[in-house]
Amino acid sequence: MATFVLDDEGIVTAWSPAAEELLGYKTTEVVGRPAAVLWPGTPPDVPGGALERAEAGDSPGRAAVLRHREGHRLKFELQVFPLTSTEPGSDRTLVLASAGQPLERQEDQSILDGLFTQSPIGLAVFDTELRYIRMNDSLVKLQGIAREDVLGRRISEVLPELDTEAIEHRLRKVLDTGLPVVNSLHHGRTPSDPEREHVWTVSSFALTGGDGQIIGVTDAVIDVTDRYWARERLAFLAESGARVGTTLDVVTTTEELVDLLVPRFADFAAIDLMAGVTEGEEPRPPDAGDVALRHVARKTVSTSAEGPGQMGDLLTIPAHSLQSESFLDGQPALLSMRDLNAEGLRDIFGPRTRSLLEEGENCSMLVPLRARDVTLGLAYLHRSARAGPFERDDLVLAQELAARAAVCIDNARRYIREHTAAVTLHRSMLPHNVPDQTALDVVHCFIPAKAYAGVSGDWFDVIPLSAARVALVVGDVPGKGIPAAACMGQISSAVRTLAQLDLTPDELLGRLDDMVPRLVEREHVKGAAPIVEGLMGATCLFAIYDPVSRRCVMASAGHPAPMIADPTGQVRFPDLPPSKPLGLGDPVFELAEVELAEGSTLLFHTKSLAHAWPTDAVMRGRLHSAVGLSDQALEDKCQAIADAVVPCLPADDDLAFLLVKTRALGCERHVTWDLPRDPAVVARARSLVLRQLQRWNLEDSAFTTELIISELVTNAIRYANDPIKLRLILDRTLICEVSDASSTSPHIRRAATTDEGGRGLYLIAQFSHRWGTRYSATGKTIWAEQLLSPPEDAPTGVDQMLSLSPSFREEMHGTGQDP
């Protein structure tokens, strides 16, 4: 209590130590000064500058505000006592000022009272034992428990449904450290709304006493349920964009969707799609009636749950059911247990999963998967009673998720359709079977790109040629998909056509290189340039193997060389001259020739395999080992190569290769004679051929062979230059060849009745299986092949001759030719 004395003029005449302590003024600073310095405004009841005197002994308390020396204001309760003196003018007034609270503390108290009575924020005060000692009305409303049932008890005793361990851990941390914890999130249910899970943000801070000791902790609780779930839904949608549709595979996309939904959004999720969507077929709206859907994905919180059947099962949805109506009109629906039982939808969840189905409203949801105004399927979602019912906002969220997933599913379906078309087109242009020939044992492999990543333009071919030779071709067209397959078809068709001309590999590639820019230029005019632009930059390797000489001659247009393994297992690469791909302005293609031992293995491959092995030494070693194994079957080698290469390939690369093992035609299977340019040598040539046919036990072919040899040798003598060579080759067919030094090509024609010649090639075409002309650096060779085992109903050579028209036979006799 501050004590001071005022004279009649209101001048301080005495100042107690308590007054000095409470008001901050020292005695020397206040004595002799007017008392007005102690009041912020007009001193109360101070007429004439002095406090109004009261009757002696009468000390009514009055409130007053005094100013501290440092400027802040203090609330006091004043008691005024007049002191009367016998001396005139010596009366005094004794003032007793009882210390009250500072005005700031009074305002704080008002604010605190307002928080506990009017604030919408829930407030709770706990002691050091974490017992409730005070709570406001807002918190009582949030919790749904009367105040008298809460005070003096711990949270775990009042709200056991919450995660009280985490809450008390947070409060204990604040008590121990004195540091506040701001915006801590808590989930749970309270007696005020037991059917719905709420979310609160809680901020905690310590309460400190006058001595600086922590005497309790306060929680400020705000219900942010609506805001939290709105934000969570937006985050959920954003997450769906990253987690659903990561691949262009329909089933994988549906599995990603159910993985996203369970258990975060639902306890059970199942997806059925229209039959054919997984294969890329165009979805067709069903007619009024039953709807056929295929079960493609399912997930539940119960690990032991089973569905109604196996994945891929075809389910029939009856007409006029909730499912069919939702499928046809594209509208989602919230379902109760009554709906499930009435429509028989419980069967969707399977026998064990039915334990999830509990009585309740809005426990299930039926959501169509719609994309581009077409319904692709249905999604079934369910929550157990423990998770709470679906709300309208959940239905909107599920519809948005289904719409986004449906677009991904439809994109995957479209890609599968295009991929399937590209693969089908690509496979249709590759050889399905190796043509009959004896020069090589051949196996081939084509593996499309993994994970629907695209089909490239890799291709290969095996083309039988004359003289028992075989052409081996591999190539690669830039690009992916149907355009690459279309370009590959044009390149492979052109190569197959040019190969029948018996061109050398370098000449064939030169003509092919000249064709590519002309084709692109022509298609530019037609507006189809994007399809054929892949021809520019295509690569090709063309090789011809001759089993008679055991030589392989090859040329490349920007394509890697084959891998060669001799019969001992040693692997090497031929020295193939480098060149540019087709259409890039380099018309020069050089030959490389290698001699191969019988039983050598050659691996002709596309660029994808060549790109893979330089980066992986282990794979390169496995590949060399697979090719070099001499005692392993060719099919086993092919599988070993595929096993070694496929894991190293990028997802968007095909794998295509030819694996061949060489054979040789021994000297007993072919014979060559040098013939002089003399008409009399025709009879000698027939005799040589007849003796050789007898050695090969081919007397049945003697008549036809004599005729063919007579015509070929006669033409060479008449129209060609020396040297003339006659060669017979016994392969799957009997091959007759006559070579000369002339580069002039004979042409088959229909001779007139009066012509004396011109029928030789016509006869050869009639009596041989195939015939043709090939050129070399020194001249040309005309060849003809005869089948060794003609069909049973095929006419013999004599029958063929007799079947010719009478006029033709007369012409032959008239020209003196021996039939």
- Structural class by helix and strand composition: alpha+beta
Strand content: 25-35%
Helix content: 25-40%
What number of domains? 5
- CATH-defined topology of the largest domain: Phosphatase 2c, domain 1
Q: What is the CATH architecture assignment of the largest domain? A: 4-Layer Sandwich
Q: Termini separation (Å)?
A: 155 Å
Plain-language structure description:
The chain has 819 residues and is an alpha+beta fold. The protein folds into five domains: 2-106, PAS domain (Beta-Lactamase), CATH 3.30.450; 119-223, PAS domain (Beta-Lactamase, 2-Layer Sandwich); 229-418, 2-Layer Sandwich (Beta-Lactamase), CATH 3.30.450; 430-662, Phosphatase 2c, domain 1 (4-Layer Sandwich), CATH 3.60.40; 667-814, Histidine kinase-like ATPase, C-terminal domain (Heat Shock Protein 90). The protein has a six-stranded antiparallel sheet with strand order 13-12-11-16-15-14, sandwiched between helices. Strands 2-1-5-4-3 form a five-stranded antiparallel sheet. A five-stranded antiparallel sheet has the order 7-6-10-9-8, sandwiched between helices. Strand 15 (364-371) and strand 16 (374-382) form a beta hairpin.
